[in-house]
């Protein structure tokens, strides 16, 4: 969980170096958007399918499979020298990293009964948020001694070590893999490394360099004989693994996964690829959103008719529905603070990105503390009481933050407010998962966990776009009303107005989440029986 969360934010400091590494100049920042949105696409779109697989097969096997995918994605990213390959690597990383989340939560539900899983869920939430804090720190530490590619090689090494730990703790491999898929995969890995790394000693060799000669005028390293062979071997390896897993995949409802994953993908690409300074939706949004709506309608129709739908009937009922709403609200509030607190710090407190990031740390450190406290509190208090209290506290803090301006971050009270907002958001993490797991069937815990994570991520992606659009609308209105639109200080104050409106919107989202939390139950369920 920590590894997946850290990788979500690890590119924050390395993005410009990654752009340079694939031939993109700093003046073409918009072309780097797929590096971010690609990871989110892989992370979110396949979560329902992997959550369902965690219900149908060994969760140890799902963890190992996701770690393997994550390692492959990390290696592809590290070797990339062209944007399409880099984006493909990030998508693969997202698939592997995102899949670790529902499998882990399902394991918690499996190992602890509903009356005792609050604290473990709090630990999981705290570790995940701690990973979010450590991601940029890890990236900065690696960049201090090596280039950006070392970040992803380190990810690959950590993934291999974690896989070994999963095998050791789980008592060995869940089943011995067949020899042919393993052999083809290893050969594909070697061929892929040769194609992407293009070792100079081989490329410049008169006798050995022929496989590395591009076709025609092509410049891609994959548009070579060795590149084509590598791609064919990858396809063959995937086909062999899918063939072996076909009985489980068929039960998981692949058609439903394709429809629902396509819907989520359209949402992610619509909002995550948008330029927040100019638009709410991305360049293809007006085509993607209608297409996503069609896919959603088709999924609902398929869900009603399928014998074994992707999301089993009886999962999105009771408190689980309210858990999804609360999780979405948590995502909106969380992303508003993560994005706009450093922005406010740059406007009114410091010109240093590093100092602005440390302002955000006041919030980030409090979130895992709140997650631990929230999970521990579930031993005596109801899910709704803990979650509602936390989000009400966050909403109050965000209202205070919406009044901040010049000099506000210089006061000690700002640290208290940021810590309280972080604590409040952290308090809601374990109750949301606990309520969803408690009200879903035992054989659908992976699916329920995946849906909660999807709701939170959608809240972050869509919430950021909408709140930024609201803030920019107020910014432009404020600038239009200025008597002197060349006054630098007045323009700075107008930019602060934009941030204040984002915090207001986040406060509303947290308030809605607090009200919705009431439906999660104010007392412990076993005390009601």
Automatic annotation (TrEMBL):
Q: Which domain of life is it from?
A: Bacteria
Stored Pfam families: MFS_1
- Tell me the GO molecular function terms: transmembrane transporter activity
The places in or outside the cell where this protein is found are: Cell inner membrane
> Coiled-coil region(s) at which residues?
none
| Keyword Membrane part of the UniProt annotation | yes
Q: Which residues form the Major facilitator superfamily (MFS) profile domain?
A: 1-525
Instruction: Tell me which UniProt keywords the record has, alphabetically.
Output: Cell inner membrane, Cell membrane, Membrane, Transmembrane, Transmembrane helix, Transport
Principal localization reads: membrane
SUPFAM superfamilies for this protein: MFS general substrate transporter (SSF103473)
Locate the transmembrane regions by residue number: 32-50, 62-81, 87-109, 121-144, 150-170, 182-202, 222-242, 254-274, 280-301, 322-343, 355-378, 385-404, 416-438, 450-472, 501-522
InterPro entries, per the entry: MFS, MFS_dom, MFS_trans_sf, Sugar_transporter_CS
Q: Which GO terms describe its cellular component?
A: plasma membrane
How does the record say this protein sits in the membrane?
Multi-pass membrane protein
What name does this protein carry?
A: MFS-type drug efflux transporter P55
